[in-house]
Amino acid sequence: MTSRTRIQLLSPRLANQIAAGEVVERPSSVIKELLENSLDSGARRIDVDVEQGGVKLLRVRDDGCGIAAEDLSLALARHATSKIRDLQDLERVMSLGFRGEALASIGSVSRLILTSRTVDASEAWQVESEGREMEARVQPAAHPIGTSVEVRDLFFNTPARRKFLRTEKTEFDHLQEIIRRLALAHFDVAFHLRHNGKVVLGLHEANDEGGRARRVGAVCGPAFLEQALPIDVERNGLRLWGWIGLPTFSRSQTDLQYFYVNGRAVRDKLVAHAVRQAYRDVLFNGRHPTFVLFFEVDPAAVDVNVHPTKHEVRFRDSRMVHDFLYGMLNRALADVRPGDPVRLED
Ligand code: ADP
Ligand code: MG
Questions:
Q1: CB neighbours (10 Å) of residue 121?
Q2: pLDDT at 36 over 50
Q3: What is the arithmetic mean of pLDDT over 282-307?
Q4: Residues 240 and 289 in one domain
Q5: Whose CA is nearest to atom 13 of ligand 1?
Q6: Which residues span the domain enclosing 322?
Q7: Among protein residues, the one whose CA lies closest to atom 21 of ligand 1
Q8: What is the CATH number of the domain that holds 133?
C-alpha cells in the first residue's frame, strides 16, 4: 500500500483543466462552444478567424448582447452561467449552453482573451485567463456591442493533449464541419469564416425560402441542391421539412447527413434507422443517403440535453417518431423510385 497523503481541494485551475478533458478535445470543440455562446447571445452576425487549423488562433466575434464589465471575470469561472438559476430553469432550458463550464475549461488550456460590450455600456472591457487562478483583471478595451473571444495556443500547457492534435488540415476540416452544421440550424444568422487570412465561408442572413436554399447550396455544395427534393410535411403536431438527396446523389460515407430536432443537430440511432429504411430500396449496398432535415416536435416530447458533447436525443414516443419519419420519407421517395409497381393516378 502507498503511504497516506492528506486530502486537498484541487486548485480552480487544475479543476478546470480536468473538466477541459471532457469538453475540449480539439479546436473544433472550442469553436462549437464559442459559437453556441454567440448564438445564445442573440447574435445576428458571427465572424470566425482561424489560424493554423485553430491550434494557433481561434477568434469568434459576435454582435450579440455582450457581457457587463462586472460579470466578465465571472464568465471565465467554472459553474458560472447567466442561463439558468434553479432546477425549474434547468427543466425547460432553451439555450444551447447552461453548464457554465466552457469558458473556464477553454481558458485553462489556452491563452484566452474575452472582450465585450453591452448596449448600455459606453466602452468595452476585457479579461484574460492565462496563467491566473481566475481572479482576472478587467481592463478597458475597444470593441463594438457584442463579444469577442480569442483563444491562442490551444493546449500550450497540456502537452499530452497537444500530442493528439492531427494535421492543420484535419483540424480545420473538423472545425469547418461544426460551423456548417450550426449554420444550417440558424438561417437567420450570418456566418463568416476565415482561415489563415483567406475567406472560406461567407453566409449571409437567409430569411426566405430562396435564401435558405442558397445557404444549403453553399454549405452542402450546389450539386446536392440540384439533386435534392424539397420536402415539408406535417401530421399530428410533427413537422418534417428540408431537402432529401435523390438516390442518384448518394455517397460512400455518411458525411452529408444533417438532421435537426427543434433546431439542434442530432445524431440518433432511431432517426438513422428510419432514414435507412426509407432509402432501402433505392440505394445500392454501401451507399448512403444525403439530407438536410429539420424535425419539429413539441419540446415536452423530447429531451435534447442528454449529454453535453454527444448529439443524442430521447423521444417520449420513439415508435411514433420512427414511423412518422419513415412514412414521410418513404412517400417522398416513392415518386422517384425506379420501376415502382404502384403508380397512383388521379
Ligand atoms: P454557459 O454557456 O453554459 O452558460 P460558458 O462558460 O460557455 O457557460 O459561458 C459563461 C457565461 O458567459 C454565459 O452564461 C454567458 O452569460 C457569458 N457569455 C459567454 N459567451 C458569451 C457571448 N458570446 N455573448 C454574451 N455572453 C456570453
Ligand atoms: Mg456556453
A1: 15
A2: yes
A3: 88
A4: yes
A5: 81
A6: 221-334
A7: 37
A8: 3.30.565.10
φ/ψ bin of 282: left (φ > 0), alpha (ψ from -120 to 50), beta (otherwise): alpha
> For residue 234, what is the domain's CATH number?
3.30.230.10
Q: Ligand 1 pocket by C-beta < 6 Å: which residues?
A: 33, 37-38, 41, 62, 64-67, 75, 80-83, 97-104, 147
Lowest mean pLDDT among 94-98, 134-138, 243-247, 275-279: 134-138
Q: Which among 23, 35, 81, 112 is the best mutation to test ligand 1's pocket, defined by most ligand atoms within 8 Å of the CB?
A: 81
Q: Whose CA is nearest to atom 23 of ligand 1?
A: 38
**Element holding 148 (H helix, E strand):** strand 146-152
- Going by CA atoms, what residue is nearest to atom 14 of ligand 1? 81
Which atom of ligand 1 is the closest one to the Cα of 96?
2
What is the value of pTM for the model shown?
A: 0.91
Q: Which ligand is nearest to the CA of 101?
A: 1
Nearest to 25 by CA among 164, 129, 149, 130: 164
**Does residue 342 register a pLDDT over 60?**
no
Mean pLDDT of all residues belonging to the chain = 91
Output the nine-digit C-alpha cell for 108: 485553462
Going by C-beta distance under 8 Å and a sequence separation of 6 or more, which residues neighbour residue 228? 243, 244, 245, 246, 249, 290, 291, 292
